Amino acid sequence: MTAALELGSSSIRSLRREDSVLKSRTSRCVYAVLPDSPAHQRLLEQSGLQFTTCEDGILLLGDGAYDNAELFKSPCLPLMVAGRIPKGNPLVRQLISSLVEVILPIAGSRNEICALTLPGGAALDSSSEARADLEFYIRLVKLQGYEPKLVPASQALILAELVESAFTGIGIVFGASGCEAILAHRGNPICHAASDHGGEWIDRQLAMKLNAPSVDSDDDPANSLAADKSFARESLLSITRRREHLTSAATISGDDFTKHVESLMQETIFELCDAFSGELIRSRRAKELPSPLPIICGGGLIQTPGFGSILASVLQEVNLPIQTQRPQLITRADHSIARGLLISAELEATSRPVGRAA
Question: Structure pTM?
Fold first, then answer.
């Protein structure tokens, strides 16, 4: 048996095959601390919401926090910041551990493989922070009884969506905490690029453009709201929700907010594509692949109205050094990356000699 764990900064998802049936679990990566009172506890119990208590109050985790924090006038806080686990915050680390335990079922037998990916291109990052986060997540996966296998999200997307091209082509993921791109031949990476500009970066820039306090506003002593971190985080969350619920492009709406979103999205896409173009130029193998190569795109940002037109414009401006097909946006497949991770785990399992120990 095998499993997949898609770790994102906005949500996490698991996928597992049980008796030829795919079963999934998912949750948002957020939490909320509510004022501790008997009235609040009774209300949560009556609503059937799971909660726990700590020194600071009542804790809600995941979807329960996202859906109900505002009802209690409490901020909904991210478990990760820019895709990273906050340092020196044992509470958040414990909450992430609890969330993984809920989302990833315990392995049914010894040596089961769990393919996992990390938020925002961190699977392609060799920095000390990324390595520390990876070690933390690997421990969690092992505690659930699995042998972990790290797979970049863009590679998983290729495995899920480029079957007809024998898993050969370009996979790009535009996520919340960053973006990444991989060129693969038969599923094996040839070259890659990553950027820390993603949905969260766009929302912080929007907060500054709109003169609203952002998650980093406490660093600005001139901001009268600097001391109120909960207000800052809540304001940023409202901007995120507003961006995620856009229904039309700026050419149709003419709305200033939408124009800001599209401008920042163009900057985000350009940064990744420009870096990826440089990697393609330096890669001898990239020029030897049959062309035109397919491009598959996933991630939350591609849901934004007008994304396809902006991406096409950026690719024309960047002028990749290889011929490509028209980019395909996977807008209705929330489980694409998780499916690719599961495929990777199953390929690994079938390639191993029977009885091999972890």
Answer: 0.88
